[in-house]
């Protein structure tokens, strides 16, 4: 696609933002207007890229205020939604980013962070299995990829040339959105196709859940307290800090009000006992496994497998091209507990994807550095 004039960035209405999202195959749920309501401790605005009067791109900007200053870190999680492929080929990324930088600078931003959903590398299921079996390989980044994209390479190069700071290599999950994710391709596949792609253990666990009488159903707002109870139990068992209940009620209210199927709650019961629960987000042809929880009791009935299978079935029925199991780390070291997460997701027959990651542009280097140190001390 070619553009006839200089691009400009300016605020857009909620309706304009939603219309721009609807015109694309998919946009991250973190780039929807609803997400601004979820992140209530950030200032937020919807913006559009305009070629003359034509809206050609959109984004949700979140602004985190620096302590005691009216200056902000501007952040576009998993965004913006622009034509990355044409931009990569044309080599004109600065044409898109310069007006964005000017816009956030006028708002009072001392730094800008974004994490485009642009794929750089893909590892197949078979490649991942081989790598996990090789004890000499400890990092996914060390494994030759099955696919390296020209778009990802071009965008990475253009960001570096424009003075943006590349994401740091991390051994675990960082503070932002995951650079490595695990996905299943659903395009032109049937339920039988997908089921055959599961490994033997996944198929056996799904069958066992069914034979044991596990029932998976869709939840409503009234079921959120039960989900949260199980989520808090999971957090205590697995050693992570849970989000507050208010976060999930806010997310449910904002996202379901924007679109009924933007967020779904799934509940797996066995003889009346809740044994697993998950949330699934969807925008267009992309569905994401968002949050998951499982009980310590009755794990032998495989509620987690059952609820995942139901979400995948629903994503297929909705016409989704991608079912996204979200973040993985790049560890392949069996002594690292994160390796178990990769093994669990690997059983679906899917593949690992690396995005370009979250890049930073310091606008005021002094304030950016001070804020960076502040956030590191907090974490």
Automatic annotation (TrEMBL):
Q: Which GO terms describe its biological process?
A: cell wall organization; peptidoglycan biosynthetic process; regulation of cell shape
The keyword Transferase is assigned to this record: yes
Transmembrane found in the keyword field: no
Spans traversing the lipid bilayer? none
Output the Gene Ontology terms for molecular function.
aminoacyltransferase activity
Q: Which domain of life is it from?
A: Bacteria
Q: What PROSITE patterns is this protein classified in?
A: FEMABX
Q: Give the UniProt keywords, A-Z.
A: Acyltransferase, Cell shape, Cell wall biogenesis/degradation, Peptidoglycan synthesis, Transferase
Q: Which family does it belong to?
A: Belongs to the FemABX family.
Query: What PANTHER family does the annotation carry?
Result: LIPID II:GLYCINE GLYCYLTRANSFERASE (PTHR36174)
Q: What is this protein called?
A: Aminoacyltransferase
Its lineage opens with: Bacteria, Bacillati, Actinomycetota, Actinomycetes, Jiangellales
């Amino acid at each position: 696609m070619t553009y006839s004039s200089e691009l400009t960035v300016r605020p857009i209405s909620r309706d304009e933002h939603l219309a721009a999202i609807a015109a694309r195959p998919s946009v991250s749920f973190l780039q929807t207007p609803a997400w601004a309501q979820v992140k209530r401790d950030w200032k937020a605005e919807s913006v559009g890229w305009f070629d003359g009067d034509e809206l050609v791109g959109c984004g949700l900007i979140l602004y985190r205020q620096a302590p005691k200053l009216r200056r902000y870190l501007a952040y576009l999680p998993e965004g913006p939604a622009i034509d990355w492929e044409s931009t990569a080929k044309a080599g004109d990324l600065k044409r898109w980013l310069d007006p964005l930088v000017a816009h956030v600078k006028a708002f009072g931003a001392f730094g800008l962070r974004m994490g485009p959903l642009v794929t750089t590398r893909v590892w197949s299921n078979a490649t991942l299995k081989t790598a996990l079996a090789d004890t000499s390989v400890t990092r996914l980044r060390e494994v030759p990829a099955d696919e390296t994209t020209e778009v990802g390479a071009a965008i990475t190069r253009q960001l570096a040339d424009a003075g943006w700071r590349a994401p740091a290599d991390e051994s675990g999950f960082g503070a932002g959105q995951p650079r490595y994710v695990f996905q299943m391709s659903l395009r032109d596949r049937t339920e039988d196709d997908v089921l055959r792609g599961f490994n033997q253990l996944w198929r056996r666990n799904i069958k066992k859940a069914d034979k044991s009488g596990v029932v998976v159903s869709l939840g409503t707002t009234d079921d959120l307290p039960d989900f949260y109870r199980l989520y808090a139990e999971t957090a205590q068992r697995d050693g992570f800090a849970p989000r507050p209940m208010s976060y999930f009620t806010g997310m449910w209210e904002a996202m379901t009000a924007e679109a009924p199927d933007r967020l779904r709650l799934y509940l797996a019961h066995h003889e009346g006992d809740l044994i697993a629960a998950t949330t699934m987000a969807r925008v267009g042809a992309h569905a994401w496994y968002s949050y998951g929880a499982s009980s310590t009791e009755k794990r032998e009935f495989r509620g987690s497998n059952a609820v995942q299978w139901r979400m995948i079935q629903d994503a297929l029925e909705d016409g989704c091209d991608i079912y996204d199991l979200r973040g993985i780390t790049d560890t392949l070291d069996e002594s690292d507990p994160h390796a178990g997460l990769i093994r669990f997701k690997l059983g679906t027959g899917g593949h690992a994807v690396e995005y370009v990651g979250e890049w930073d542009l310091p606008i005021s280097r002094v304030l950016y550095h001070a804020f960076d140190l502040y956030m590191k001390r907090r974490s």
